[in-house]
Write a structure and sequence with these properties.
The structure holds 2 protein chains of 2 kinds. Chain A contains 7 helices and 2 strands, in the order ββααααααα. By secondary structure, chain A is mostly helical. In chain A, strands 1-2 form a two-stranded antiparallel sheet. In chain A, β1 and β2 form a beta hairpin. Chain A is globular. The N terminus of chain A is likely disordered. Chain B is mainly α. The chains are: A mainly alpha, B mainly alpha. At the A-B interface, α1, α3, α4, α5 and α6 of A face α1, α2 and α3 of B.
């Protein structure tokens, strides 16, 4: 797919990747790559900018990537771009330190809305299925944005207990929800 | 450990690392090492994306109603002894009812002794002391009468008799009038009217000496 002369390439375009192939790549990987970039950058707007940059690079250089390695390549390009931005920001205004989920999200695309509604119900059910002490830690960490250390202090339990509860909750949520499409 | 278990364990470990990374719960050195791993490990990149998606999903769902997150109360503090915050409503109601019943019982035990003298009931054992003021007044009256009688007859009654009389008045709850009425059968022990009146209204400020003068 990505080799010059491959079935999806456009030889007439100087062996660059076919725009349709780029669109297919985007459709297949953009959502996941966007979440990854938000995890690295903790900023939805910056993550979108980097995502666009990554696919521009894919259009320019995708043909040089070995077949089957395109997805890791996309993530690597995105990571390098994101880290470069973070370094520049850190040099300007201090290190960005916040949780990825606390970033104000850019409004979802229309097709994401449907997934979102379905996922919210599933998430509620998954949260309700958690033991109370695990659900409490999840909610304090994600809704209240408290650090694990602060949660441990507030609940009067060792930090290790809080981490274990969160870890167990994470495992159960992943099992129940798979990979949410939000 | 089977291959599948190893993979699951590896997935769980990656998911946990990814969650700590996106939650900014990693020390700087570990974070740098983690980001170096991200360049080489696409599965770890996917774990980060998954962690963001999962936490997004949880954050997007309305929070479930949970009890207030309070620090554990100190040992022996009132909070520690109070019902759990998530105790059912009937538990709180039962607590209030028990407190009300205890208060009523305390009122009854406090008030009852003041009624025993007129109602002719025997007071509770622990209540005798509460009635000691009235007993003391009656004893003074009786003593005064005996002094008067001794002066007439030159015969002193034994103290134990006086104590018995006072105790009878207090313990049996019988009116002193009734106690002395029993002795009416013996003309030798006839009781003057002023004493009966004084005892029936005791405790009072009536001075038996003055009353005797009136008699």
């Amino acid at each position: 797919m990505s080799h010059c002369g491959g079935s999806v390439m456009a030889p007439a375009d100087g062996c660059k990747i076919d725009p349709a192939a780029v669109a297919a790549l985007y459709h297949e990987h953009a959502a996941e790559l966007g979440r990854f970039l938000r995890g690295v950058l903790r900023d939805a707007e910056l993550a979108r900018d980097v995502l666009q940059t990554v696919f521009v690079r894919a259009a320019e250089l995708g043909h040089t990537v070995r077949e089957g390695s395109l997805k890791p390549w996309l993530f690597r390009v995105g990571l390098n771009e994101a880290l470069a931005i973070r370094r520049r920001q850190a040099a300007r205004a201090g290190v960005m330190r916040r949780a990825a989920w606390r970033v104000e999200r850019v409004g979802p695309a229309p097709d994401e809305e449907l997934d979102r509604a379905e996922t919210v119900g599933a998430v509620r059910a998954a949260l309700e299925a958690l033991p109370e002490e695990q659900r409490r830690v999840v909610q304090m960490r994600i809704y209240e944005d408290q650090t694990f250390a602060a949660i441990a202090r507030q609940l009067g339990v060792p930090l290790g207990t809080v981490l274990t509860r969160m870890q167990l909750a994470l495992r159960k949520l992943r099992t129940r929800l798979g990979r949410p499409k939000l | 450990m089977t291959q599948k278990n190893k993979e699951t364990r590896g997935d769980d470990d990656r998911a946990w690392l990814a969650l700590r990374y996106i939650a900014d719960e990693m020390p700087a050195a570990e974070r740098d090492a983690f980001e170096q791993r991200l360049e080489l490990d696409s599965a770890l990149c996917e774990a980060v994306a998954e962690a963001v998606g999962l936490t997004d999903a949880v954050a997007a769902a309305p929070p479930l109603a949970t009890p207030a997150y309070a620090s554990p109360p100190e040992r022996n503090s009132p909070e520690r002894n109070s019902p759990a915050p998530n105790a059912p409503a009937w538990f709180h109601a039962a607590g209030w009812m028990a407190a009300g019943a205890a208060a009523c019982l305390a009122v009854v035990l406090t008030v009852r002794p003041f009624h025993t003298g007129t109602a002719g009931r025997r007071p509770a054992a622990g209540v005798t002391a509460a009635n000691s003021a009235g007993t003391s007044d009656r004893r003074d009256i009786v003593l005064a009468w005996f002094r008067l009688r001794d002066a007439d007859r030159e015969a002193t009654p034994e103290t134990s008799d006086i104590d018995n009389l006072a105790d009878t008045t207090a313990d049996d709850g019988r009116d002193a009038t009734a106690a002395w009425s029993d002795s009416d059968a013996n003309p030798e022990a006839s009781v003057p009217g002023w004493l009966l009146a004084a005892l029936s209204s005791a405790p009072s400020d009536r001075n038996p000496a003055k009353a005797s003068e009136q008699d």
